[in-house]
Each structure stands twice: as C-alpha cells, then as structure tokens.
Amino acid sequence: MFGLAKAIKCFLLSLLAICCLSGAAFAKQTELVFYFPVSVGGPITKIIEGMTTEFMKQHPDIKVTPVYAGIYRDTLTKALTALRGGEPPHVAVLLSTDMFTLIDENAVIPYDDILSPAEMSFTKNFFPGFMSNSQTGGKTWGIPFQRSTIVMYWNKEAFKAAGLDPNTPPKTWAELVSFGKKLTKKDASGQVTQWGVAIPSTGYAYWLFQALAIQNGAELMNQEGTKVFFDQPKAVEALQFLVDLAFKHEVSPKGTIDWATTPRDFFERRTAIMWTTTGNLTNVRTNAKFDFGVGMLPANTRPGSPTGGGNFYIFKKTTPEQRKAAVTFVQWMTTADRAAQWGIDTGYVAVRPDAWQTKQMKEYVKGFPYAAVARDQLEYGVAELSTHDNQRVTKALDDAIQAAVNGSKKPADALKDAQKEAERILRRYNK
Q1: How far apart are CA 335 and CA 117, in angstroms?
Q2: pLDDT in tens, 43-56
C-alpha cells in the first residue's frame, strides 16, 4: 500500500513538473500580429496561412496571427490608425513606397537597430533594384517580399485573328498603336467588342503612368523623396500618349480603366493587350482560357518599368523579444526556397538571385518561361515613385491622370496642378 502511494505521489509530482515546464514554455511564447494586404488575384490568403502555420510548427515559441487588411492603401491606413490607438501590428507587409511615410510617422524601426552589422549581411541577398526602395539614410527599413514590375500580357488567339504574329508583341509605342488598331474589333452597329489595349488608370494610376514616363526618359522624383518632377515636358508627353490611345488612336476605352477589373476584361476577351503587375501572372495562367503571352513593356526612348510591391516592416512599438521574433519570421519568409515558391505560387518576382537557382524555380521557368520576364525587366527597372507624405503626393498625381483620361483637363494642365499640389505637400521637407 505504501509503495502504491509513493508511486502515485511520484506520478503526480512528475505531472506537475511537466505542467510547469509546459506553462513556462507557453509563457515564453512571443506573439506577433502580422498585417498583410490582399489586393491581387489568386489564393493569396491560403498561401499566407500555409506559410505562417509552417513557420509556427518550426518555431513553437513564436505565434503569428495574420490580419488581412485589404489593399495596400487600406492596410497602411489601418496600421497607422492602430499605431495611434496604441496597438499597432508588430510586423506588416506594406508598399515599399510607404517607407518615408512610416519613418515620418515614427512607426517603424530599421533592421540595423535590431541586428548587428554582421547579421545585417543577409540584406545583400536581395536584388539591388528592390533594395533601392528599402533603404534610406544609410539604414534598411524594409525587406523585399512580394515585389513586382509591370508587364504586358497579350491574347495570342486575338493576335492571330488580327493577322499578327502571336509570338511577337509590340516593342515600341508606335507598334503598340499599330497593333492596337488591328486588334480593336467592332460589331455591326459600330460598338467595340474588343479593345486593342488596356492600361489601368485607377487603383495604381501613378504606377502605370510612371512606366510611360520612364519609357519616355522622365524621372518623376529625387532619391531623397523631397522633390517631384510631374510637369516636365517628357512626363507631359507620356500622359498625352496615354490619352491619345483612347481619344486619337481609338485603341483603348475612353475615360478611366479600372485596375481591379482589367484582368477580367482580358479573360473575357474585351481587351487583347493589358498592362498589369506580374503579381497577376498566376491569376492569368489559371483563368485565361486561351493561349497568352507575357513580355516587357514597349519602349519609346528606352525600355523600363517601375518596381513595385511590398516589403516587410517591423513596427517600433514592440518589445526586444518581439523585434527578434519578427526578424526571425521575416528571414524565414524570404529564404531562397520560399522566395522561389512564393514566386511560383503567386507570380510575384522572387526577390533574391539565388532563388532563381533553386531546383523548383529552374524547373518552373523551364516549363513556363514567362515567369522570368519580370526578373529580366529588372535590368531596366526604376524605383517606384516614393516621397515623404507619399499617399497625398501620389493622390495628387492619380487625380491628374484621371482628369486627363476623362478629358476634363489637358495633360499639361493636369500635371501642372499635380506638381503645384505636390510641392505644397513637400514644402516642409525642403527647408
């Protein structure tokens, strides 16, 4: 009897010890709230859920709770609102162009303040073109994750029906117009049933316009994010070309073209060519019921596209443990293998060169060469428009673009007004 009692006592003490150890381990678990923007097609949410679940399996001491906050602009607004309310996210994927805004709001902490100089060497793994929107003042504020460029998609069946070589897209602005005229179709009543080209002018109008400006030899801002050059002649010519596609050449719809519905118009054969993010690549591959092509944007005086997409930022209102956990999460999410798989699953550009040397990426590109178009276009890439108070500055430019394509202002007048508004917004950063 005594032996049984002793055995029970030992068992209970062991159980208590296990519970204490488990409780201690649980108590030490670092919790991270992770804001993520859902703004393009494809099963992005499920992919992120799978990645965070796998991360937590490998790092049981860290709990990550994803919060899906809408498009990038909404995600930034919600993050800053939460910051002012005292409960910001610990880590978030926000636009690379939000860097100056986040710094000005004292919202984020540079990675250099968390890691040693030796540990910061991991930032050299990423494409320099993506790091240009991630660093300023000698510090790294963002780590590239879902990055992109704008690419051109075309319907090969429509090209063939129009007597065009389905494997040869337009390579210049002049060819874009001439191809667009052949691709635009009308019914017996004269109504257009298929447009030649669609370049969105809502959602990310400034981004698409910047591509045209780059192709015409215009840079829209300085590296410090304190000055813009919206009304320079080459930029005006670029906006005039966008307007002329609709009103002069009649190869594109008049008025604004919606960012969100342009892929659907492409799938439903209402446009034969579209410009949109490479982040829509998997969406197009899944939903286009016809053979399609993907290529670099056509050039005028030069080829080019702005880079785009989101970086990982770590918020300042965090404990040292949360910051370390956030860095661990960011580094895990951006390894070569995961960057490769993320690119395969979504269409975004794998953000580091060694990701393109992984077995899965080599096999993917071999079977689907279009996946490498955006990577190759990085040779001609330019940092996306980014300034202090970026939301207000880009809104001024968006408004100008929409006024021009709607016909309510001439391109020169619209961009002059945008320049004046941007200079007013940026005045305090130029003292």
Answers
A1: 19
A2: 788 899 999 999 99
User: Would you say how long the chain is, in residues?
Assistant: 431
Q: Where are the domains of the chain?
A: 27-148+308-381, 150-307+387-429
The answer regarding whether domain 150-307+387-429 maps to CATH 3.40.1280.10 reads no
Distance set, CA 148 to CA 47, 67, 122, 178, 192 (Å) = 18, 22, 21, 28, 32
- CATH class held by domain 27-148+308-381: alpha beta
Residue 388 near residue 380, CB atoms below 8 Å:
no
Mean pLDDT for all residues in the chain: 92
Least confident residue range of 22-36, 240-254, 315-329: 22-36
Q: What is the pLDDT of residues 69-102, one digit of tens each?
A: 888 888 999 999 999 999 999 999 999 999 999 9
Distance of CA 11 to the CA centre of its chain: 56
Q: Which helix (H) or strand (E) holds 152?
A: strand 143-155
Q: What is the pLDDT of residue 320?
A: 96
Show the DSSP H helices in 260-389 as ranges: 262-267, 281-287, 320-333, 336-346, 359-367, 373-377
Backbone angles phi, psi at 57, to 5 degrees: -65, -40
> How many other β-carbons are positioned within 10 Å of the β-carbon of residue 366?
10
Same fold, 27-148+308-381 and 150-307+387-429: yes
